[in-house]
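tool=predict chain=A
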Amino acid sequence: MENKYQYFRRDISWLSFNYRVLLEANDDKLPLYERINFISIYSSNLEEFYKIRVADHKAIASGATRNDEETVQSAAILLEDINNEVNRQLEDRVRIFEGKILPALRKNHIIFYQDHDVASFQKEFIKKFFREEIFPFLQPVPVYKNKVVSFLRDNRLYLAVRLLSHDKGPNAPDHIQYFVMKLPYSKVPRFIELPPHEGNYYIMYIEEIIKANIDMIFPGYDVDSSFCIKISRDADILIDDSASTADIVEQVKKKVKKRKIGAVCRFVYDRQMPKDFLDFLVDAFSINRDELVPGDKHLNLEDLRYLPNPSKQLQKIEKPKPMKLNFLDERGSIFNYVQQKDLLLHYPYHSFEHFIQFLVEAVHDPATREIMVTQYRVAENSAVINALISAAQNKKKVTVFVELKARFDEENNLANAEMMKAAGIKIIYSLPGLKVHAKVALIRRKSNDHEKMCDFAYIGTGNFNEKTAAVYADCGLFTCNPKITHDLHALFHTLQGKENPKFHNLLVARFNLITELNKLIDHEIELAQQGKIGRIILKMNALQDPIMINRLYEASQQGVKIDLIIRGICCLIPGQTYSRNIRVTRIVDSFLEHARIWYFGNNGRPKIYCGSPDWMRRNLYRRIEAVTPILDPDIKQEVIDMLDIQLSDNEKACFVDENLNNLFKTKSKGYSIRAQYSFYNYLKKKNETPL
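tool=predict ok
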């Protein structure tokens, strides 16, 4: 039976999100260097997208791998559509960068050279800098059409050079020679500050300094031309996670080392490169034609986050500073506070140090008997890991579930696990066939009467990572409510191999999450059918699972009013007859919106949940995820206020329409709300109000 509903394609929807990131660089109300940083973020996002998603589609299109959801033909069509959309976006990136950013820098007396045709008063410095700081690190490698002598490393910039020999006639077969040189900006910065002159500051790309002095590298040749190139390689490592734990550990150790030599998924080149030059490189490095992606003159613009700011006059990027909660300082202990009332922290508006304090208190508290934590992604030199090691050294029982299959964090997680294990911490590695994505912690303490255990739970939407907590907008609930702590204790037992757990209040993927979500949606549909208000608000990073999208379509058709605040992928199509009651809002601003919060109206007695999963197939069916109800009435109201502020945003929020366009809201006169900053001020005011 044919499905009556339709969906956006996942990757095309993601490209719509990334284009929304690029549009921040177009906002001339933002500080100039923040706009430049958004170009960097856009470029970095795109690089990872090619390494993972495009690489997967290429493998299917070539017949190298199979996928039940995608055919060879559909993968090939999708790849063409992806490349067309990316090329369109890159034209806008050039327009924004060259047409708006560079003139704005120049207006602020920062001359950012885009080629090596520099002012005469800079030439002597450039020549001296090249000779002393760059030339010693250059290693030109000849390239031959039928002989591979060089391996192009992943995401590294190379300068491809075409030379004409002085000593050969123009018709000699070796009159034309080709070389590649890896740019040495692990030794030298990508952006070089030149001497200031008459009130102006000057910046130059390292590749342009090399081009300005390229004759010194190749004496005896005429340099015909030179262009930057780079390769993106498949970064997805395939782990057989049905194997035993010990085998998974060994696979991770071996396969992460091969990530940098994965199959080519993109060959990016300066679009000004002549066709015969490109043809030679394609043959020499065995590049498939469908892997060619024309780029700008300067590639790897993710490096723009390192662009120097020599001007003291330019407006600095002022973001809200994480606040510490006054009432926690007054109580002197998170445990003392949470024993009386649940606590919800909102990062990065609230300081992540409160979570660190939670662990540190447990380390030194004689009543603490056990600490249990999941680890998905943690910071390098993690304060969380250090606190757990201190707890083990302080004779506390510590158990940490380490997810080794967290993409790009496999090595860091394995190293941390081995370090914790050496300190006496019980380590539980990845479950066969599953990823554990839940962000949970449980601290077990003896109660005051020393007869019973008093458990303290933390359920979050983001990782236990103090670095990302400074830039990701997440939340985390502290509670000692037995309705939650009993379920969380059962979840940790499940992670240790205990079967048939019973969850009564927590929603846990692969156990009761889907069942309970269906009940919640059904109830809103029933209310709407009775002429009452059916209301759903879902805030997430991604909405992709067609089964749950169908449920939202059904609810919309029955009159349930639905607001989706989806930052990234959204495969639900608004503006259709079956989605006329659904609005899709996207917010991109100073912080990465990352929280997952679900609101169900329940006839005026809202049910609200927060936790780790998006509504993607992988989260709902192939991972362990944990979602907690918000039971405290004051915290419920705080979350409702946050959702209202986000839905009222008319500065950084836009609607996503049926064509995946990002439509900014029309501003009312005298009415301006920028949700992230408005919510920070809301929390700040609450913090300054005595309890």
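The mean pLDDT is 91. The chain is about 35% helix and 20% strand.
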